[in-house]
Prior knowledge:
By secondary structure, this protein is an alpha+beta fold.
Amino acid sequence: MTDYLLVGAGLAGIAFAEIALRHNKSIHIFDNKSQNSSTIAGGLYNPVILKRFSEVW
């Protein structure tokens, strides 16, 4: 029996999985690697936002 089914192994999915494992819960992760935003610079690189980049004073 599995406690949690996770769809997607992005930043949120992996963070939740880590917390679930710390609480001795069983998990099963489904990920087809179709989205790679979490793998590029840890999900911190977003070209849409950087187009309008302006410094915050």
